Amino acid sequence: MWRKCFTSLAGQARTSLSLSPICVQNSVLTQLLKRRLHQVPGSPTARPPKILITGGLGQLGIECAKLMRSQYGNDNVILSDIIKPSQEVLDNGPYIFADILDFKGLQKIVVNHRIDWLIHFSALLSAVGEQNVPLAVRVNIEGVHNVIELAKQYKLRIFVPSTIGAFGPDSPRNPTPNVTIQRPRTIYGVSKVHAELIGEYYYHKFGLDFRCLRFPGVISSDPPGGGTTDYAVAIFHEALRSGKYTCYLRPDTRLPMMYIEDCLRALLEFMRAPSEQLKRRVYNVTAMSFTPEELVDKLSKYVPNLHVTYKPDSRQSIADSWPQVFDDSDARSDWHWQHKYDLTNLVDFMVKDVQENYINVENGERHTLKI
């Protein structure tokens, strides 16, 4: 579903290696160069990192696996979750069952597969977490304890995403700097602050190579998964199907956002950055900030008779405690982060992607049934 965007992103990442055309054509030389360029820090042999992705069947996991496999090889990136995968997922590369609450099971995976990097996506999102706090505590806090301890024990480089939800009503909202008061009011936000602090503690106490990016709302064509910023995904699906959408936030609710391609590229660049280049272990990253009414204005160019009504619900109070504009100047300064997508080209890509991979597919299925 993300073939066009992924092809573009993978191509950019490969271009950054500055391989000559002759080298690209010669698979042996290409593999040798990859091994030199992407060797595991401290490893006695030059080889690509072996990467485990937890929570791999969520919004980011499958596309992250595709990107990492394009850089490090199919067999070096293992996708995992507790959900039965589709055949497409199985066809694209290694997939295993991994329960982040089972520490011994995680140890076996790391040892048997010789894991070097751990990308930890397993989490209950903001709105879902509020509906089941005990489960959110287990998955988002106990699960993080397990993977952090695992990374310390086996000297892994570990990435744990954080969020704009790690901030609260006492935080400055426009802009929200990298270091400021946080004090979130959701279990999702509390668990993410906990992850940031425990990761930094393990870095200072044990030398753990912990890395964390605070993502804004991440927009992709996948159906929404329970986040407060998911209106910015749902509106494309509903508008292109019916020309109508009921928004659960006020029209003037400004929130930071990022297109999935920028999100995954930030993750890859951050994981590749030399440790000595990082002045901190947790960074804000973003691309844009917009309101529902600003998004509707752009989308109306594709759906001229779009009708949107606003009925704020419990998610409004969550959004009101979050940043409006994210300050990611530290990431831009320390490891040279630069976004590619603004609101205009985000809407362009989303309309094409949702139309081609969801609306047209559904219409084709309905047409087939009529024949």
UniProtKB/TrEMBL annotation:
GO molecular function: L-threonine 3-dehydrogenase activity
Name of the top EC class for this enzyme: oxidoreductase
PANTHER family: L-THREONINE 3-DEHYDROGENASE (PTHR42687), L-THREONINE 3-DEHYDROGENASE, MITOCHONDRIAL (PTHR42687:SF1)
EC number(s) from the headed UniProt entry: 1.1.1.103
Protein origin, superkingdom: Eukaryota
Role according to the record: Catalyzes the NAD(+)-dependent oxidation of L-threonine to 2-amino-3-ketobutyrate, mediating L-threonine catabolism.
Organism: Drosophila lebanonensis
Gene that encodes it: LOC115633638
Name the record gives this protein: L-threonine 3-dehydrogenase, mitochondrial
GO process annotations (BP): L-threonine catabolic process
Annotated pathway: Amino-acid degradation; L-threonine degradation via oxydo-reductase pathway; glycine from L-threonine: step 1/2
Family to which the UniProt record says this protein belongs: Belongs to the NAD(P)-dependent epimerase/dehydratase family.
Residue ranges of domain NAD-dependent epimerase/dehydratase in the record: 51-285
Swiss-Prot/TrEMBL catalytic activity: L-threonine + NAD(+) = (2S)-2-amino-3-oxobutanoate + NADH + H(+)
